Amino acid sequence: MSKVGIRDVAKLAGVSTGTVSRVLNDHPSVTKELRARVTGIIKELGYMPDPSARSMRSKVSRLIGIIIPDLTNPFFSELVQSVEQAAANHGYNIIVMTSLDHAAKEADRIKQLTSRKVDGIILVPSIDFHTIKLPKGLPIVVIDRLMPGYSGIAADHRNGVRLGVEHLLQLGHRRIGFISGPSHSVPANDRLRGYLDAIERTGEQAGEQADGRAAMAGSPLIAEAAFDYESGRSAGNYLLARARNERPTAIFASSDQQAIGCMRAAHDLGIPIPAALSVMGFDGIPLASMTTPRLTTVKQPIQDMAAAAVAVLLNKQTAPDLDNPILFACEILKGETTAPPQPDKH
Amino acid sequence: MSKVGIRDVAKLAGVSTGTVSRVLNDHPSVTKELRARVTGIIKELGYMPDPSARSMRSKVSRLIGIIIPDLTNPFFSELVQSVEQAAANHGYNIIVMTSLDHAAKEADRIKQLTSRKVDGIILVPSIDFHTIKLPKGLPIVVIDRLMPGYSGIAADHRNGVRLGVEHLLQLGHRRIGFISGPSHSVPANDRLRGYLDAIERTGEQAGEQADGRAAMAGSPLIAEAAFDYESGRSAGNYLLARARNERPTAIFASSDQQAIGCMRAAHDLGIPIPAALSVMGFDGIPLASMTTPRLTTVKQPIQDMAAAAVAVLLNKQTAPDLDNPILFACEILKGETTAPPQPDKH
DNA sequence: TTGTAGGCGTTATCAC
DNA sequence: GTGATAACGCCTACAA
């Protein structure tokens, strides 16, 4: 009953196992009628090829592995979900693993996936990732946290942040604080650069070089923090704990979670948002629209990135150059946390 | 280099492939010394057994499938992460799939997992799940949304909610609103029952039968809603849009997301929390501690549930009776959204 | 175009 | 306790 194999199909269809196999694999050299008859029998018998046997012989598992630091992070969970959908569209399934940002664990997971003979790996490297040895032939695409030397896909953090900061500038803000990510994080640095881009550009235009220089010199307008909520909160406290006319009138955070933490800090300090302080985040996680007031943020096109990653792995799309990652444009998701600044009171 | 197989190990160790295999599988009948020598060679050669070949021969894939409705839901993403860890502890990997609460998709995913020869399936059934045919021998454990007829693992929603509502009662609340989940959802009904348990019990004790009866008769203190944020918000609006002395002084929501939506509704109505309204949620997702003020909630022991589910699948633990699911106790996570009620002004 | 047969890397069943 | 050897279920030259 449950033991229906390729030979049963062959026997019942009056053909050889070879023909059945060729039908299974869409080999072109099979008659229309034969193909029809065989597929009929297959359905009739409810035959399903054994993936293990198949994989062993053909070296194709129709499995792709994805390793992320932490599934609890909404950005990554949305990424995984998107990858699952994209993979399913191609008849692939995914093995999910979490590294918890632990390099050793990550290396181990990669080994496991390798020996599982997955057809490809999508990797969000852990913070202290250094390098991996992969059997050549196993495609790997690094996503979000780019690493030189690996095919990469990511949002265009730099331009995304620049866009966001420019939005604040256009509203009239001039003292714009920035909550940066960990300095050893690639995306964090890209985002910081985007901030500096915007500030400097404005400075040049307006002749107010001071702002740009101050920012670059590590002025008190920049606070480094981890990407999480609590870090955002204390960074917010740091940026806001000063006289009103020195305090930023707007803060751009490198992640939505930071931004939400920052909102809490402002709230605790009795600073109303957006009346006395504009706040923007980055990522566009669902959570961003659940805050009070709704967070204005820069959204990464996660689904597109996931689809691209899968396509690259399956050779449906040419892999990006090792040193030229595919970058996806971000867009501003307008919420209620941004408004023109209040004039300083002298 | 990359083609090191069991025969290479055997040759180099001066033993037969059979012995190597036995070492690999911790078969008791192998000398200590031999085992040591072989494991040494294995490490030296960096040999990793081919899971496909292994699975083909032994009918064990060391793979377990998990199907959830939506990975974007923080409860499920934490569940998946916990399952992944638990599985890894047993040398297992997981294939993750999302059904998007779509029964057809779900059925298809189950078929895929079956043909993948996973060693077990952990399933959170979709809302409109009806039944599945599984080749016997494939263990399946239903988690969270219990179904009669399947081995089940879940939090004790009913008692958990009762505990939470009792907390509100102890604070002095008497008009306690309840945001229920979808009426066709099993956990939703369990939670509702827990609410009724608490209300009725108090009514009996205090002789105020009215409360209990009112609640049971579908009084305006109960609002049905989906589990998400927006639904919680409109349910909150519904419950709060009435004269102050008729309005609930506390609201227990069936999910944290609902509770957060409800907080937003209260905020929009100018009702301060917890001064004029206490709010409690259910689930204990990380998000609950990120709100302002921090949400008081009832936490499900997700990790324990995940570990149990894996243990059951792997026969490390006896499966629960088909009609007696394993229930895990919940505990209250105290935040800042609950306080004694203000006295009514007459 | 279709049939035949060998072998993929392990595990399990025998003997020894 | 250990070694030889036959499957496991399928794909793929190669032959017809």
TrEMBL record, chains A, B:
Protein name per Swiss-Prot or TrEMBL: LacI family transcriptional regulator
Gene3D superfamilies tied to this protein: 3.40.50.2300, lambda repressor-like DNA-binding domains
InterPro entries tied to this protein: HTH_LacI (IPR000843), LacI/GalR-like_sensor (IPR046335), Lambda_DNA-bd_dom_sf (IPR010982), Peripla_BP_I (IPR028082)
Annotated keywords: DNA-binding, Transcription, Transcription regulation
Domain of life: Bacteria
Residue ranges of domain HTH lacI-type in the record: 4-58
Matches recorded under CDD domains: HTH_LacI, PBP1_LacI_sugar_binding-like
One function term, GO molecular function aspect: DNA-binding transcription factor activity
Keyword Transmembrane helix listed: no
Entry-linked Pfam families: LacI, Peripla_BP_3
